[in-house]
Amino acid sequence: MIDRTWRHGALVAIASLFILSACGTNGASQPPSAASVAPAMSASADTGASASAGAGGSTAAVTCATGSITAAGSTALQPLVDKAGKDFVAACSGAQIQVQGGGSGTGLTQVSQGAVQIGNSDVTAESKLASPDASALVDHVVAKQGWVAVVNTGVTGVTNLTTQQSIDIWTGRVTNWKDVGGPDVPIVLVLRPASSGTRSVYKKIVLGGAAEATGQALTEDSNGAVVTAVKGTPGAISVIGFAYYQQNLGQVTALQLDGVDATVDNMKAGTYKLAADGHMYTKGQPDGLTKAFLDYMLGPTVQGTTIPSLNYAPVK
Amino acid sequence: MANVAIPLGSNRLERTRSIRERIDIPRRVTLIAAILVVLVVALLLAFIGIRGTRMFFEGGVPLTQIFSATWDPGADPGQQTFGLLPFILGTIGVMVVAAIIAAPLSIGLAIFMSEIAPDWARNITRPAMEVFVGIPSVVYGFLGANVLVDVLRSNFHQQFPLGYSWFAGSLVLSIMILPTITSIAYDALITVPGELRTGSLALGTTRWQMIRHILLPAARAGLMTAVILGMLRAAGEALAVQMVIGNRAIVPTGIGQPIITLTSGITLDMGNTTDNQVWNMALWTMGLILLLMSLTFVFLARRIGRRGAAI
Fold it and tell me: In Å, how far is B17's CA from the nearest CA of chain A?
């Protein structure tokens, strides 16, 4: 009996170790590599008065504030907010910024309920929340983010899809690559869940609202799972964020959209259309650390250095 | 538990009040713990019950719509359809096929461990089973998505054109529930009195005849409980299944095609819907349905099993 109890205890301990390590791995696989983060700002003239006792670190080009805030939501925007948050905290002792994913809907719900100070979203609050809740939120557009259509590397001969071809593929009217200039391989559509920000952006900008052929598609719930599916499935096509494409170069093939390369420059120039604003919502006007962090997001360090390095486009 | 304290309380040796109170402390502590657990379960049921029915009361979705096969929550308001049939049938289908694969293997293994294995073999299989239990589901899912799906697609392309399929989900699940079924079945087998075995063998039966005609019928209730509890675990598993099943919201018709389950339906859309969307309410309804299915299985297991504390 004692032996049994002991063994069960040990088992639970081992199991929880496994679970913990699984969480750790999961966190580490998120886009920004924590180890490589170095404070981007070098010491320069203090651009403004410290909002409060910013202790020693306030000599950098950042207005410090103390306190603890949490930003949650969009996983497409998460790599950027995560990196900026780490840089900010590194420069400001006394500030703590937690950045979590969860999805655009989670970010909007939580900021609306006051559970977090900043809600990150790929889509506007009006498209997800009821009007009284949405109008209580203040929108801060911090970056422009782009998505790219990617196909399995076995799909050769196709380098570009027009908007019309994309619509035909996504709605299930075209089901073989040979109809768009590729090999005789059936097209396997890999979708994100219908509620995902990525999917709704693509549906709005490229498909013009047309309904996807969900009855013939696979659905995967994250950029990572989408890459795995596209990489492994002959004839597969999907859409992922720029940052995730950069991490999987060579694993999948990127396609042009209407003859335009999916690059940050083309997105900035406005010629590449599969792009959308990254929103950071606050409930009411921000103050304290929340305001300081949002100012930092819109300041020269993030807009000029962090954003280009992570394949987003600046808004300033 | 509670009746342990009764002989102490009615002890003829009259002690002072303070000592009796001191003896009573463990009883009170355990009683509070028991009440807390029951309270948490009751609150959980009430909460999911309330959230799970909001779709019908606040969302205005007719109750019958959940038996529709069309899942189209992203359509324009007024055109949305919240048919949950693909999810319900998908969950049942994945679970049943997993049990069909896992039950013979696990019960065979349990018979081997309880009746046939020499000590050294038992000393290996038992800890091996326990290690099995400790492997987190994401690892199974990861292996499934990167290895199993490829193997199915490349070697059985005719049956599994995409690899992501009902069968892939069931296979991954069957491995996950194998230790659950095995360990409960093993417990059921070793509690069969030894006299039955020796009596049977003394009458001249072979070991196989003894297992087939004496042991298995005697342990039948326990074995069925084992399979049901295994299915219960299968129904609730989300991550590993979602990674290999393809998540296509259609009514399943063949084990080679991608389908969807209640759990993967919830996890796919959970992060991107907000509190007051009917869509979000539909996810709670899926949770409620899953809970009702689990309760049914627990009830069945308790009905069948003579020993209630099998979980």
Answer: 34
Q: How far apart are CA A127 and CA A134, in angstroms?
A: 9
Min Cα distance B269 → chain A (Å) is 6
> d(Cα B244, Cα B253) in Å, to the nearest integer?
17
Pairs of residues, one from chain A and one from chain B, whose beta carbons lie less than 8 Å apart: 109
ipTM score for this prediction: 0.74
Radius of gyration from C-alpha coordinates of chain A = 22
Distance, CA of A217 to CA of B15 (rounded, Å): 75
Q: Residue ranges of the alpha helices (H) in A103-159?
A: 104-113, 131-135
Determine phi and psi for A19, rounding to 5 degrees. Answer: -65, -45
Closest CA to A27 of A119, A100, A117: A100
- What digits encode the pLDDT tens for the residues B274-304? 777 888 899 999 999 999 999 998 888 888 8
Token pair in block for residue A32: 């920004």
CA B5, B6, B11, B14 torsion-angle sign: positive
Q: What is the pTM assigned to this prediction?
A: 0.76
Which helix or strand (DSSP H or E) is residue A3 part of? helix A2-28
Residues of A whose CB is below 8 A from B253 = none
Please tell me which residue of chain A has the smallest CA distance to B86: A215
Q: What is the pLDDT of residue A159?
A: 93
Q: Hey, which residues 244-263 in chain B have their CB within 8 Å of chain A?
A: 246-250, 258, 260
Mean pLDDT of chain B: 87
A198, A240 contact by CB (below 8 A): yes
**B244: amino acid identity, one letter:** V
Q: Which of B152, B260, B272, B286 to mutate to test the interface with A (most CBs of A within 10 A)?
A: B272
